[in-house]
Specification:
392 residues, alpha+beta, four-stranded antiparallel β-sheet, 10 helices, binds ligand EPS
């Protein structure tokens, strides 16, 4: 890995930190663009009361001077405004008050296995870090990765294609322009009719004290062929993207291109035939591979989907066991969101951007952005010219 992203912080603690290490010097960062991504992650019909409290904004505390990266680790922080209401329960330092422990693990959450793993008696010691609040820090780091990609002509977008059983019509022809108004949909869905149906579905199930999962899709445009590698399993981009998406809280499946559907197709309908045109180079008329062959980018748009389970905190709790008494009990009932698939799409963008920026740095990495651009442009020229025969 050329790029590292590490986050710290608890959901109701003082705040979150993201450290991004490995960025070249000279990358321009736009404070508004970073904050825009944080705000976009707070969007979406189906969010709970917490989002009325938080106004996520990123502060830079290291690695940047006058808006340009210096080459050292970049430290980004996001304050938890809600900490003001949790100061006793979540203070990093001992407090005088007695803080009651939480003993009611939620099925589907990290609560029970986390306490078993660490030998703990208080579920809060687990749930605070397992919370998807942590994704605010990832989005801050992902926005830095996006800045690098943007500089190299790559853009990353997301949209929601399914909420429970409501699906948007499949679109294979999307371009960057199609995403210009995606955040105006309350569920970040490109199809107005599906968007309305998704909102209704959230309202309907929320009234029944249910939570909802779904599927988001991330697309990246402007990629060069040859990012990633076919050589070793851990360098293959499919695997790296899979891990990045599955590491997002509540994700249960990831698909690239036609995903699991290709398993049911004959070979003649599962691949993208190759054509060549002078001046245009190699091209394909389909993109069933989702822009990846042999663990490397083909140059076609990257298409990655993440499937999210319904959130495990339910207003009508599931059956569980009190870990102090071992008696049957209802799971913890906490303020929660009913649907966060639209927000998860923004997190998906951040994770895909991170993986792509990492792959770019691996192939073209240098101390400064100017040096990196020179290597990148040389590769672009080489790809455009096509493989040259050596002297015979
Ligand atoms: C979350 C529970 C809710 C969400 C939270 C993730 O928080 P709270 O318990 O404070 O109501 O709002 O997500 C965020 C705070 C966020 O910024 O996305 C959970 O249990 O994972």
């Amino acid at each position: 890995m050329a790029l590292h992203l590490i986050t710290a912080g608890e959901s109701h603690g003082p705040g979150l930190t993201c450290i991004v290490e490995g960025m070249p010097a000279g990358l321009e960062l736009d404070h508004d663009a970073l904050n825009r991504d944080l705000s976009r992650r707070q969007l979406g019909h189906g969010r709970g009361g917490r989002m009325k409290i938080e106004r996520d904004r990123v502060e830079l505390t290291g690695g940047v001077r006058h808006g340009r990266t210096l080459g050292g680790p970049i430290a980004l922080t996001v304050v938890n405004r809600d900490y003001a209401n949790w100061e006793e329960r979540m203070n990093p330092w001992p407090v005088e008050a007695t803080v009651p422990e939480v003993h009611l693990p939620r099925p589907g959450h990290a609560d029970l296995v986390g306490t078993q793993k660490y030998g703990l008696t208080d579920v809060r010691d687990i749930l605070e870090r397992a919370s998807a609040r942590e994704t605010a820090a990832r989005v801050a780091g992902g926005a830095v990765a996006k800045a690098l990609l943007r500089d190299l002509g790559v853009s990353v977008f997301s949209h929601v294609i399914q909420i429970t059983s409501v699906t948007a019509p499949r679109r294979d022809d999307l371009t960057p322009d199609d995403f210009s108004a995606v955040d105006e949909s309350p569920v970040r869905c490109l199809d107005p009719e599906a968007s309305r149906a998704m909102v209704e579905e959230i309202n309907r199930l929320r009234k029944q004290n249910e939570s909802l999962g779904g599927v988001f899709e991330v697309r990246a445009f402007g990629l060069v062929p040859g990012l990633g590698s076919h050589i070793s399993w851990e360098e293959r981009l499919d695997g790296r993207l899979g891990m990045a998406i599955l590491s997002i809280q509540a994700m249960k499946a990831v698909a690239i291109g036609d995903g699991i559907e290709v398993a049911g197709l004959p070979g003649s309908r599962a691949h993208d035939e190759i054509f060549y045109e002078d001046g245009h180079g190699y091209y394909r008329e389909t993109n069933r591979s989702g822009g990846l062959e042999g663990g490397m980018t083909t140059g076609a748009p990257l298409v990655v989907r993440g499937s999210m389970k319904p959130l495990p905190t339910l207003t009508k709790p599931l059956r569980s066991v009190d870990i102090a008494t071992h008696e049957p009990a209802e799971a913890l009932r906490e303020r929660t969101d009913s649907c966060t698939v639209p927000a998860a799409g923004v997190v998906g963008e951040a994770m895909v951007a991170f993986v792509l920026a990492d792959a770019m740095l691996e192939k073209f990495g240098a101390d400064s952005l100017d040096q990196m651009r020179a290597a990148y442009e040389a590769h672009q020229r080489w790809v455009r010219a096509g493989p040259q025969r050596g002297p015979s």
